[in-house]
Amino acid sequence: MIYLLLKQIQYFLAVAECKHFTRAADQLFVSQSALSQQITKLENDLGMKLINRVKHPIQLTPAGQDFMLYAKKITHEVEQMHQNLQKHLSIEKRTIHLGVITGLGNINIASIFTAFNSEHPNIKFAVTNELSKELCKLLCEGNIDLALFAAPHDIDSYNFEVHPLEKEEFVLITPANHPFSQKETIKLSETANENFIFPTKKNVSYDIFFTECRKAGFTPKIVSECNGPGRRIDLVQAGLGIAFISLSGLQYYNNSASLSIVRLVDPFYKHIVLARTKQEKSSMSLLMFWQYIQQWK
Q1: May I ask which residue range the UniProt record assigns to the signal sequence (predicted)?
Q2: CB neighbour list of residue 117: distance below 8 Å, 6 or more residues apart
Q3: Of 262, 121, 99, 254, nearest to 186 (Cα)?
Q4: Nearest to 135 by CA among 124, 127, 126, 144
């Protein structure tokens, strides 16, 4: 008897869809080597090649094409099983697993919970706080039901249903004695020779900032990386460089004279979205909260 892991099937389908190991690994949030090992193990367990790795983009073998048909049926049946079993879980005892980032702009998640629970007191929340990229991974893996996060640039590549909630402008912060501090607005291209303090690469904002700098015609000189707007503000105040920060991130600013805020002539934004995986059915409690938060003001 052949024993296959659902994860192996999901990995195979990602490779079949992307036709590229690197892109599939990025979508699954795993290393390319780990993905390749799982596909190789799958092929060894079946005793046949499913993927032609020589051709680029990669192609499925005839056996791989047949396997894909069964793999899609299996994942669909597993999803249907999960959904149908939800009816045995009383809505009165339902826990919604929600992932959130720290920087939600003007969205007060505590107030949303309080208001929702006043109408549905027996629906509970289990909240996970992570960076946006990690929340995408948790949502893909089914470890959370919903996520509130800053949309990555490749949000459309995920099997997510997405509802935009808010967009928040990024501004430039500089030491108070910096030449830019005399300006009200600035073109991003004017900062090409500056030292930058960025978030880490695990942060969606890193990709946003880097992409905007490249669009402005330069590669940013990053002298330090750290997550948390408060830390970046401290480093700017210390004179290490300049940084981008969202308007809500300025709440960490203590209004001292050692910092200046300059808006961009062509601003760019952090887009806060509500996301869930695309599925035919959702539990009643999850659907209720999904609809409720979209109407929240």
Answers
A1: none
A2: 123
A3: 262
A4: 144
Instruction: Name 221's bridge partners.
Output: 195
Q: What is the pLDDT of residues 114-140, one digit of tens each?
A: 888 888 888 888 999 999 999 999 999
Tokens of 289: 């909260």
pLDDT tens, residue by residue, 14-33? 888 888 888 888 777 678 88
Residue carrying structure tokens 């408060």:
230
Structure tokens at 149: 């996060």
- Read off the tokens for 2: 């052949």
* pTM for this predicted structure: 0.65
Take residue 124 and report the two structure tokens written for it. Answer: 């509970």
- The arithmetic mean of pLDDT across residues 203-223, rounded, is 95
CA quadruple 102, 108, 114, 119: dihedral positive or negative? negative
- Taking alpha carbons only, the member of 235, 231, 236 closest to residue 172 is 236
| Rounded Cα distance, 12 and 50, in Å | 9
Q: Which residue has the tokens 């990025």?
A: 26
DSSP string over 145-184: SEEEEEPPTTGGGSSEEEEEEEEEEEEEEEETTSGGGG-S
